[in-house]
Amino acid sequence: MINHQIDAYGLSKTVTHNQGNYAAMMADTIARYKEGKPVLYYTWTPVLG
Fold it and tell me: What region holds the ABC-type glycine betaine transport system substrate-binding domain (predicted)?
């Protein structure tokens, strides 16, 4: 769904969609932030119950 939206809105030149292990992705996001690089972070998990 996210990849479809990136393509549909022509964002592929400016947006990179990364998927993976939460801890590894969070570490990478924090490192990018500390280096002064741009970061847009969003996470979602289903509610189980």
Answer: 3-46
Q: Which residues have a Cβ under 8 Å from the Cβ of 3 and sit 6 or more positions away?
A: 17
Give the number of domains in the chain: 1
Is 31 domain-assigned? Answer: yes
> 46 pLDDT band (50/70/90 cuts)?
confident
* Nearest-10 Cα torsion for 24, 26, 27, 30: 160
Model-level pTM?
Answer: 0.61
